[in-house]
Specification:
By secondary structure, the protein is of the alpha+beta class. The chain contains 9 helices and 11 strands. The chain starts with a helix and ends with a strand. The mean pLDDT is about 85. Bound molecules: zinc ion (ZN). Zinc ion binds next to β5.
């Protein structure tokens, strides 16, 4: 009896390990695309070499980080360019860079070469027009796959879409302020004022409760110190929509009318998505 009890406990433990590993593979794939595959390679190597004591944990973490870094920064960029004509957006360029590190650490900054050129040129023009201006990108696309969505953005699946942050000024001094009031890049919204077209309320009334969800999750305490810079944001949108490569740009109707933007490329994305008064969505 004792034999069967020990055997059953061992089987249960093995099963739970398997479930945990499958969960890790799925999560890493959803979040980083190649992380799940790297994790499987890591498990395979780990089986071949067993380290002892405290060294085991340190070496295991180090091994995974090393494999993930080689894959993300040495192998994936070449494969993405050769197979899908996608390039990683710049990380250290003073005119165009990621707002948050997670974007490039998780391979969420790949775009088609055509979009890459438009973004870099637009950001450089912005910096020439308004010195000290850095344009920040948020989520773009994953490096590989013809239809691999970068969740939660279902449409960011082909290298042809990117989200950009708004520009801000310091609320007290009125001086250009780089960065964003949101730690995530999303969720701190430039809400409709009295008399504006109020799509958040309209979408909520239609039953689309996901529409304003991020605003409830993301801390809002920095909102007071960042003032939306309509002048520079309008200029960037005009530069982007003037490019023949850009076919659509999503921003909220109340911001479009506040900035007096008239390009037919500017659209409202509908209530099924999330709010676009915290960022600009641009696509080829
Ligand atoms: Zn988008």
């Amino acid at each position: 009896m004792e034999f069967f009890r020990v055997k059953f406990t061992a089987m249960k433990k093995r099963f739970l390990y398997l479930v945990l590993r499958v969960f890790i593979v799925i999560m890493l794939t959803i979040l980083t695309q190649v992380g799940g595959l790297v994790y499987l390679l890591y498990l395979w190597i780990k089986q071949k070499h067993s380290f002892i004591g405290w060294k085991r944990r340190v070496l295991n973490i180090g091994l995974f980080v090393l494999l993930y870094s080689i894959c993300s920064f040495a192998i994936v960029p070449t494969v993405a360019y050769k197979l899908y004509n996608r390039k990683a957006l710049p990380i250290t360029n003073s005119a165009l860079q990621p707002l948050r590190m997670y974007t490039f650490l998780m391979n969420r900054h790949y775009v088609d070469e055509e979009l890459y050129e438009v973004l870099v040129n637009s950001a450089e023009t912005m910096q020439l027009t308004y010195p000290e201006t850095t344009t920040y990108f948020l989520d773009a696309c994953f490096p590989l796959g013809a239809k691999f969505p970068l969740l939660p953005h279902w449409s960011h699946n082909d290298g042809r879409k990117v989200d950009l942050a708004f520009y801000y000024k310091d609320s007290e001094t009125g001086i250009y302020k780089n960065g964003s009031p949101s730690w995530l890049g999303y969720g701190v919204c430039e809400s409709p004022k009295a008399g504006d077209k109020d799509m958040p309320t309209f979408c909520k009334e239609q039953g689309f409760f996901q529409y304003s969800m991020l605003e409830k999750i993301v801390p809002q305490y920095k909102k007071e110190t960042y003032h939306f810079d309509a002048k520079r944001t309008k200029k960037l949108i005009e530069i982007l929509t003037a490019s023949p490569s850009i076919k659509k740009l999503f921003i909220k109707p109340h911001l479009q009318s506040r900035m007096q933007l008239t390009s037919p490329k500017i659209r409202f994305h509908g209530c099924h998505a999330v709010r676009h008064d915290d960022h600009i969505h641009v696509q080829l």
